[in-house]
């Protein structure tokens, strides 16, 4: 296949395939080459994070040199096309270190209006959740299946996920708890896999705070392609990160938003 024949989706899948190859040998390995990026807490990065992002950047330098890149480990490289590839080589490094298959590779292509294409890839389980205009699919052990969010119509029937029980500031935690007190079930610790499950119709809400742009661009594209909504806690765009509300449908989104807007 020639360079000009490669579509953006081809490139995104190439990035995900390459990241899988780089990362999997490290997973559940006794020596991950881990460092702590936060002297005041624990924000781990491994050799796998850095190697995977470098490998993806090399592909983009060859096939999309005009596009910008924003990655968690190596920052921003401005482009000239008005488009940016947003990369998080391992979203959920704490889970990666713990051996849980809830981390993932996040890849998005974004323009001025936000994410246009996104992939949430879980290399260990072999699941790839893809969202793009006219495309919302899961490729995995059972083959290809469509992604579609749930039609749950009330909070008391909803399943809510977040990554950490200690959600953001005390005020943000209070907002989360107010929603959690209204839902049927609340679960923790899923990182980007929670967003993938929302797109797959398994859960209804994800509420988080303190996210970076590279944490949320790919989930936005996947969830919106599957029929869901992703905004900030005021109902506005959340492409830059911060407080995130992802919902399976407009009814649940509005119900959760009415509570979170009070924070």
Overview of the structural elements:
- The strands form 3 sheets. This protein has an 8-stranded mixed beta sheet, sandwiched between helices. It has a 5-stranded mixed beta sheet with strand order 12-11-13-15-14, with helices on both faces.
- The mean pLDDT is 93.
- The chain starts with 7 loop residues before the first helix and ends with a helix.
- The protein is globular.
- Helix content is 31%, strand content 29%.
- Strand 7 and strand 8 (127-132) form a beta hairpin.
- The protein has helices at 8-23, 47-63, 93-98, 170-180, 192-199, 213-225, 250-260, and strands spanning 35-36, 44-45, 68-71, 75-77, 84-91, 104-111, 114-122, 127-132, 135-140, 143-146, 159-162, 185-188, 205-211, 229-231, 242-247.
- The protein has 263 residues and is α+β, with helices and mostly antiparallel strands.
- The protein contains 7 helices and 15 strands.
- It folds into 2 domains: 3-146, Fructose-1,6-Bisphosphatase, Chain A, domain 1, CATH 3.30.540.10; 155-260, D-Maltodextrin-Binding Protein, domain 2 (3-Layer(aba) Sandwich), CATH 3.40.190.80.
- GO terms for molecular function: histidinol-phosphatase activity; metal ion binding.
- Mg(2+) 1 binds at residues 72, 88, 91, 215.
């Amino acid at each position: 296949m020639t360079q000009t024949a490669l579509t953006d989706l081809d490139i995104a899948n190439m990035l995900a395939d390459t990241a899988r190859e780089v990362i999997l040998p490290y997973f559940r390995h006794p020596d991950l080459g881990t460092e702590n990026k936060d002297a005041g807490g624990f924000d781990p990065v491994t050799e796998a994070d850095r190697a995977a992002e470098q490998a993806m950047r090399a592909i983009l330098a060859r096939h999309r040199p005009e596009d910008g890149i924003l990655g968690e480990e190596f920052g921003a490289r401005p482009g000239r096309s008005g488009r940016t590839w947003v990369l998080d080589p391992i979203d959920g490094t704490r889970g990666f270190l713990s051996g849980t298959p809830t981390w993932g590779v996040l890849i998005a292509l974004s323009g001025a209006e936000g994410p246009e294409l996104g992939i949430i890839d879980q290399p260990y389980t072999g699941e790839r959740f893809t969202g793009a205009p006219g495309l919302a699919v899961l490729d995995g052990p059972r083959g290809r299946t469509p992604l579609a969010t749930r039609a749950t119509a009330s909070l008391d029937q909803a399943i809510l996920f977040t990554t950490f029980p200690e959600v953001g500031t005390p005020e943000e935690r209070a907002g989360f708890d107010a929603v959690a007190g209204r839902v049927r079930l609340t679960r923790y610790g899923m990182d980007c896999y929670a967003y993938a499950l929302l797109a797959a119709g398994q859960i209804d809400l994800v509420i988080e705070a303190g996210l970076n742009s590279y944490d949320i661009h790919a989930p936005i594209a996947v969830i919106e392609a599957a029929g869901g909504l992703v905004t900030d806690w005021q109902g506005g765009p959340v492409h830059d990160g911060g407080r995130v509300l992802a919902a399976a449908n407009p009814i649940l989104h509005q119900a959760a938003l009415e509570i979170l807007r009070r924070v």
